[in-house]
Write a structure and sequence with these properties.
The complex is a heterodimer of chains A (374) and B (119). Chain A is α+β, with helices and mostly antiparallel strands and 374 residues long. Chain A has helices at 10-15, 36-45, 65-72, 122-133, 155-162, 203-214, 224-233, 275-284; strands spanning 19-23, 26-31, 47-51, 56-61, 88-94, 100-109, 112-117, 138-141, 145-151, 174-179, 182-187, 196-202, 219-221, 288-295, 306-308, 316-326, 331-339, 348-353, 356-363. By secondary structure, chain B is of the alpha+beta class. Chain B has one domain: RNA polymerase II/Efflux pump adaptor protein, barrel-sandwich hybrid domain (OB fold (Dihydrolipoamide Acetyltransferase, E2P)). Classes of the chains: A alpha+beta (374), B alpha+beta (119). At the A-B interface, loops of A face β4 of B.
């Protein structure tokens, strides 16, 4: 653990009794004394606080929003130009084969673009953006800011009690707030399927603000273990598992994230890496698709579990990319890729666990209905 | 009660050995969500994988601590896997076995030795 990087909240995690594990080069809390199941359910019932400071925060700036947005559109298949000030979107970098290099959140902040990328990919993402966009657009990694997520139905009351301007923020709004005297950038979004906020805060003020938040009614510190089961129940992809350089957005069931203006026939159609392949798949479909997989028994089906179309013999039609126990659902849940012919909701398939074929059903995602602020 | 380096405990009861995992092991595993038990009557050798236990984090195997025959399994665990976290050294025993070679028990630790082992 000695050569792992620490976030600004490392000492606080240790003080709170967290079990620290290596994750993307950082020492991160996988769970606190509450344990994964209770942390998960607490987030669904009240509010969970997550340190996600290992993620990359980057500002893109240039002569104007128009220049910045158009430049970023050369790397992602999203409508960036049409983003209103203070609004956020989900997106991903594509490669020449139409695969996904990383997924991300981006928001317009005045004339700048604020991008949040995955920890494991951030160095490559920054290099990619610098190579493609500089010098016209300046790429500035925000290495002196922490990122704290507050997620769950009690989050809004907690944040609004500290700054009432949070009250009328809608889902995927980004706003400057002042929480307990600390200037922050807060977005109403997250990775749990619940209402909540992600708060970008100057590193020097992060621990103080976190202590303030943890002191509010209904707020508990939550580790990466519960973060993973929460996002899995919410049907959200984990980069490097459910999507990666070899999966396209269409295969990954992320076509919804590609706005019409970037699709065939749109005003700014294509113009991102792998566009020909991705746009063709939007029209023609892909040979495989990411779907929800609901094991019928109690045995979890983990990442790597092979999926077949028969209880014996038959054909291998896919593989689980994320799987485990869903504490809110109360049964195992999984997602993975299956051939298009087996991807229909309700299709009966079998997952091979320790040499045994166990039944599962192709299921609608998310497993737990989203509870976003509208 | 005797303890193994695999974090199992063995307790003698009516001429058989009752086997479970230690409090320390249960804490390390985290919340247990699935337990797969062997068939009663299975003949096992030391270090055979006899039980699959899955926590929210990962799957682990429990090995037969000695040679013998599985005489009874705790089917309550299949119904209620969280019992493993609630009472690992009591109600959450996994199986009972008739052992073939009592001398295999000699290498195991007593409670004090186990506490030292886990530091």
């Amino acid at each position: 653990m000695d050569d792992l990087k620490h976030t600004a909240l490392f000492d606080l995690h240790v003080e709170l009794g967290a079990r620290m594990v290596p994750f993307a080069g950082y020492a991160m809390p996988v769970q606190y004394p509450l344990g994964v199941m209770k942390e998960h359910q607490h987030t669904r019932d009240a509010a969970g606080l997550f340190d996600v400071s290992h993620m990359g925060q980057v500002i893109l700036s240039g002569p104007s929003w128009d220049v910045v947005a158009r430049a970023f559109e050369t790397l992602v298949p999203m409508d960036v130009l049409g983003l209103e000030d203070g609004r956020q979107r989900y997106g991903f970098f594509t490669n020449d084969a139409g695969g996904i290099e990383d997924d991300l959140m981006f928001a317009r902040r005045g004339e700048d673009l604020f991008v949040v990328v995955n920890a494991a990919c951030k160095e490559a993402d920054i290099a990619r953006m610098k190579a493609a966009l500089e010098p016209e657009v300046t790429v500035t990694p925000l290495t002196d800011r922490a990122l704290i997520a507050l997620q769950g139905p009690a989050s809004a009351a907690v944040i609004a009690a500290l700054d009432s301007r949070a009250d009328d923020m809608g889902f995927m709004d980004l706003r400057d707030l002042e929480l307990d005297g600390v200037p922050v950038w807060a977005s109403r979004s997250g990775y749990t399927g619940e209402d909540g906020f992600e708060v970008s805060v100057p590193e020097a003020r992060a621990e103080g603000l976190t202590r303030t938040l943890l002191a509010q009614d209904g707020v508990e510190a939550i580790g990466l273990g519960a973060r993973d089961s929460l996002r899995l129940e919410a049907g959200l992809c984990l980069y490097g598992h459910d999507i990666d350089t070899g999966t396209t957005p269409v295969e990954g069931a992320l076509t919804w994230a590609i706005q019409k203006v970037r699709r065939a026939g749109g005003d700014r159609a294509g113009g991102f890496p792998g566009a020909a392949i991705v746009l063709d798949q939007i029209t023609e479909g892909a040979a495989r698709k990411r779907v929800g997989l609901l094991p019928e028994g109690r045995a979890p089906m983990r990442e790597g579990t092979e999926v077949f179309d028969a209880a014996e013999g038959g054909t291998r039609v896919g593989q689980v990319t994320s799987g485990g126990f869903g504490p809110t659902v109360g049964t195992p849940v999984a997602m993975g890729y299956v051939e298009a012919g087996s991807a229909g909701i309700g299709t009966s398939l079998w997952g091979e666990v320790r040499g045994k074929r166990l039944p599962l059903t192709v299921a609608k995602l998310p497993f737990v209905a989203a509870n976003f602020k509208r | 009660m005797k303890f193994t380096e695999e974090h199992e405990w063995l307790r003698e009861e009516d001429g058989e050995m009752v086997v479970g995992i230690t409090i320390h092991a249960a804490e390390q595993l985290g919340d247990v969500v699935f337990v797969e038990l062997p068939e009663e009557g299975t003949i096992v050798s030391k270090d055979d994988e006899v039980v699959v236990i899955e926590s929210v984090k990962a799957a682990s195997d429990i090995l037969a601590p000695v040679d013998g025959e599985i005489t009874e399994v705790n089917s309550a665990l299949a119904e209620n896997p969280s019992l493993v976290n609630e009472d690992p050294q009591g109600d959450a025993w996994f199986f009972k076995m008739k052992i073939s070679d009592p001398s295999q028990l000699d290498e195991f630790m007593d409670e004090a030795g186990y506490q030292k082992f886990i530091g």
